[in-house]
Protein backbone atom coordinates (compact mmCIF):
# COMPACT_ATOMS: atom_id res chain seq x y z
CA UNK A 1 0.00 0.00 0.00
CA UNK A 2 2.92 2.32 0.70
CA UNK A 3 4.77 1.18 -2.41
CA UNK A 4 3.55 4.35 -4.14
CA UNK A 5 5.49 6.43 -1.62
CA UNK A 6 9.04 5.01 -1.52
CA UNK A 7 10.59 8.28 -0.27
CA UNK A 8 8.24 8.27 2.72
CA UNK A 9 9.09 4.66 3.55
CA UNK A 10 12.80 5.43 3.32
CA UNK A 11 12.38 8.54 5.47
CA UNK A 12 10.91 6.65 8.42
CA UNK A 13 13.31 4.66 10.61
CA UNK A 14 11.05 1.62 11.04
CA UNK A 15 7.62 0.12 10.52
CA UNK A 16 5.04 0.33 13.26
CA UNK A 17 5.44 -2.61 15.66
CA UNK A 18 2.89 -5.38 15.15
CA UNK A 19 2.05 -5.06 18.83
CA UNK A 20 0.94 -1.46 18.22
CA UNK A 21 -1.30 -2.54 15.32
CA UNK A 22 -2.97 -5.14 17.54
CA UNK A 23 -3.33 -2.57 20.32
CA UNK A 24 -5.04 -0.19 17.91
CA UNK A 25 -7.48 -2.86 16.75
CA UNK A 26 -8.39 -3.54 20.38
CA UNK A 27 -8.98 0.18 21.01
CA UNK A 28 -10.82 1.45 17.96
CA UNK A 29 -12.95 3.92 19.92
CA UNK A 30 -9.80 5.49 21.34
CA UNK A 31 -8.17 5.32 17.91
CA UNK A 32 -10.94 7.41 16.36
CA UNK A 33 -10.94 9.85 19.27
CA UNK A 34 -7.21 10.45 19.13
CA UNK A 35 -7.26 10.55 15.33
CA UNK A 36 -9.75 13.43 15.52
CA UNK A 37 -7.45 15.22 17.96
CA UNK A 38 -4.47 14.64 15.65
CA UNK A 39 -6.24 16.21 12.69
CA UNK A 40 -7.27 19.23 14.75
CA UNK A 41 -3.74 19.66 16.13
CA UNK A 42 -2.27 19.36 12.63
CA UNK A 43 -4.50 22.19 11.42
CA UNK A 44 -3.52 24.25 14.45
CA UNK A 45 0.19 23.67 13.80
CA UNK A 46 -0.18 24.87 10.21
CA UNK A 47 -2.08 27.97 11.32
CA UNK A 48 0.50 28.76 14.01
CA UNK A 49 3.24 28.63 11.38
CA UNK A 50 1.26 31.03 9.20
CA UNK A 51 0.91 33.50 12.07
CA UNK A 52 4.54 33.26 13.14
CA UNK A 53 6.20 33.40 9.71
CA UNK A 54 4.16 35.95 7.76
CA UNK A 55 7.07 36.76 5.44
CA UNK A 56 7.50 33.20 4.13
CA UNK A 57 5.36 33.20 1.00
CA UNK A 58 5.67 29.53 0.06
CA UNK A 59 5.04 28.47 3.65
CA UNK A 60 1.85 30.57 3.76
CA UNK A 61 0.59 28.95 0.58
CA UNK A 62 1.32 25.36 1.57
CA UNK A 63 0.23 25.68 5.21
CA UNK A 64 -3.05 27.32 4.23
CA UNK A 65 -3.89 24.37 2.01
CA UNK A 66 -2.67 21.89 4.62
CA UNK A 67 -4.80 23.46 7.37
CA UNK A 68 -7.92 23.24 5.22
CA UNK A 69 -7.28 19.59 4.44
CA UNK A 70 -6.61 18.70 8.09
CA UNK A 71 -9.85 20.38 9.18
CA UNK A 72 -11.72 18.46 6.49
CA UNK A 73 -10.19 15.24 7.82
CA UNK A 74 -11.26 16.24 11.33
CA UNK A 75 -14.82 16.71 10.09
CA UNK A 76 -14.72 13.31 8.39
CA UNK A 77 -13.43 11.53 11.51
CA UNK A 78 -15.94 13.36 13.69
CA UNK A 79 -18.79 12.30 11.39
CA UNK A 80 -17.63 8.69 11.57
CA UNK A 81 -17.56 8.94 15.35
CA UNK A 82 -21.08 10.37 15.52
CA UNK A 83 -22.42 7.66 13.23
CA UNK A 84 -20.84 5.02 15.47
CA UNK A 85 -21.95 6.56 18.74
CA UNK A 86 -18.38 7.42 19.74
CA UNK A 87 -18.15 10.46 22.02
CA UNK A 88 -15.45 13.01 21.23
CA UNK A 89 -13.55 13.51 24.48
CA UNK A 90 -10.47 15.33 25.73
CA UNK A 91 -7.29 13.24 25.69
CA UNK A 92 -3.87 13.87 27.16
CA UNK A 93 -1.11 14.63 24.66
CA UNK A 94 0.90 11.72 23.33
CA UNK A 95 4.46 11.08 24.44
CA UNK A 96 5.42 11.15 20.75
CA UNK A 97 4.61 14.79 20.10
CA UNK A 98 6.29 16.06 23.25
CA UNK A 99 9.25 13.74 22.70
CA UNK A 100 9.87 15.19 19.24
CA UNK A 101 9.18 18.85 19.97
CA UNK A 102 11.39 19.12 23.04
CA UNK A 103 14.42 18.87 20.72
CA UNK A 104 13.42 21.84 18.54
CA UNK A 105 16.07 24.54 18.67
CA UNK A 106 15.03 28.01 19.86
CA UNK A 107 16.95 30.33 17.50
CA UNK A 108 15.92 31.14 13.95
CA UNK A 109 15.93 29.84 11.30
CA UNK A 110 16.81 26.62 13.19
CA UNK A 111 13.51 26.73 15.09
CA UNK A 112 11.49 26.87 11.88
CA UNK A 113 13.59 24.18 10.20
CA UNK A 114 13.26 21.78 13.14
CA UNK A 115 9.52 22.44 13.44
CA UNK A 116 9.08 21.60 9.77
CA UNK A 117 11.18 18.43 10.05
CA UNK A 118 9.10 17.29 13.03
CA UNK A 119 5.98 18.02 10.98
CA UNK A 120 7.35 15.81 8.21
CA UNK A 121 7.86 12.92 10.65
CA UNK A 122 4.38 13.32 12.14
CA UNK A 123 2.74 13.24 8.71
CA UNK A 124 4.89 10.38 7.43
CA UNK A 125 4.18 8.28 10.52
CA UNK A 126 0.45 8.99 10.26
CA UNK A 127 0.50 7.80 6.65
CA UNK A 128 2.41 4.64 7.57
CA UNK A 129 0.04 3.83 10.42
CA UNK A 130 -3.11 4.34 8.36
CA UNK A 131 -1.66 1.95 5.77
CA UNK A 132 -0.78 -0.58 8.48
CA UNK A 133 -4.29 -0.48 9.94
CA UNK A 134 -6.41 -0.37 6.79
CA UNK A 135 -6.27 -4.10 5.91
CA UNK A 136 -7.56 -5.05 9.38
CA UNK A 137 -10.47 -2.61 9.76
CA UNK A 138 -14.09 -2.82 8.68
CA UNK A 139 -14.87 -1.74 5.13
CA UNK A 140 -15.92 1.82 5.96
CA UNK A 141 -12.89 2.61 8.13
CA UNK A 142 -10.50 0.82 5.79
CA UNK A 143 -11.72 2.82 2.80
CA UNK A 144 -11.46 6.05 4.81
CA UNK A 145 -7.90 5.43 5.96
CA UNK A 146 -6.77 4.45 2.47
CA UNK A 147 -8.28 7.71 1.18
CA UNK A 148 -6.03 9.67 3.56
CA UNK A 149 -2.72 8.21 2.36
CA UNK A 150 -2.21 10.53 -0.62
CA UNK A 151 -2.76 13.75 1.33
CA UNK A 152 -0.68 12.62 4.31
CA UNK A 153 2.19 11.73 1.98
CA UNK A 154 1.95 15.11 0.28
CA UNK A 155 1.96 16.87 3.66
CA UNK A 156 5.17 15.00 4.52
CA UNK A 157 6.73 16.14 1.24
CA UNK A 158 5.62 19.75 1.77
CA UNK A 159 7.06 19.94 5.28
CA UNK A 160 10.37 18.45 4.23
CA UNK A 161 10.69 20.66 1.15
CA UNK A 162 9.95 23.78 3.21
CA UNK A 163 12.54 22.76 5.80
CA UNK A 164 15.17 22.53 3.07
CA UNK A 165 14.03 25.78 1.44
CA UNK A 166 14.32 27.84 4.60
CA UNK A 167 17.41 26.22 6.06
CA UNK A 168 19.96 27.71 3.69
CA UNK A 169 22.10 24.59 4.14
CA UNK A 170 21.73 20.82 4.13
CA UNK A 171 19.16 19.50 6.60
CA UNK A 172 20.50 15.93 6.46
CA UNK A 173 22.02 16.06 9.94
CA UNK A 174 18.82 17.33 11.57
CA UNK A 175 16.71 14.80 9.67
CA UNK A 176 19.04 12.04 10.90
CA UNK A 177 18.86 13.38 14.46
CA UNK A 178 15.06 13.40 14.54
CA UNK A 179 15.02 10.00 12.81
CA UNK A 180 16.76 8.51 15.86
CA UNK A 181 14.41 10.31 18.24
CA UNK A 182 11.38 9.09 16.29
CA UNK A 183 12.66 5.53 16.22
CA UNK A 184 12.94 5.36 20.00
CA UNK A 185 9.47 6.86 20.48
CA UNK A 186 7.94 4.30 18.10
CA UNK A 187 9.62 1.16 19.47
CA UNK A 188 9.62 1.93 23.22
CA UNK A 189 6.48 0.84 25.12
CA UNK A 190 3.79 3.34 26.11
CA UNK A 191 1.32 3.07 28.97
CA UNK A 192 -1.50 4.73 26.96
CA UNK A 193 -2.59 3.95 23.42
CA UNK A 194 -2.42 6.81 20.94
CA UNK A 195 -2.21 7.11 17.15
CA UNK A 196 1.51 7.87 17.54
CA UNK A 197 2.27 5.82 20.62
CA UNK A 198 4.76 3.00 20.96
CA UNK A 199 3.62 -0.58 21.58
CA UNK A 200 1.84 -1.55 24.81
CA UNK A 201 3.92 -2.29 27.90
CA UNK A 202 5.26 -5.80 28.13
CA UNK A 203 3.36 -7.86 30.69
CA UNK A 204 5.39 -8.84 33.72
UniProtKB/TrEMBL annotation:
Gene3D superfamilies, per the entry: 1.20.1260.10
Molecular function terms, GO-annotated: tRNA 2-(methylsulfanyl)-N(6)-isopentenyladenosine(37) hydroxylase activity
Protein name in UniProt: tRNA-(Ms[2]io[6]A)-hydroxylase
GO process annotations (BP): tRNA modification
A Pfam family it matches: MiaE
Lineage: Bacteria, Pseudomonadati, Pseudomonadota, Gammaproteobacteria, Oceanospirillales
Organism in which the protein naturally occurs: Marinomonas transparens
CDD domains the UniProt entry points to: MiaE
Superkingdom, natural source: Bacteria
SUPFAM superfamilies from the UniProt entry: Ferritin-like
Amino acid sequence: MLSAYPELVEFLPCKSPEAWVNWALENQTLLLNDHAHCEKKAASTAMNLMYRYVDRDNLLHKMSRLAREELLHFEQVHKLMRNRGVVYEHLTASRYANGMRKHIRTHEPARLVDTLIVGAYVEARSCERFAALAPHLDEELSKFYISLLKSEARHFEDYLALAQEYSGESIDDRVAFFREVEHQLIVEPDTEFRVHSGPPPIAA
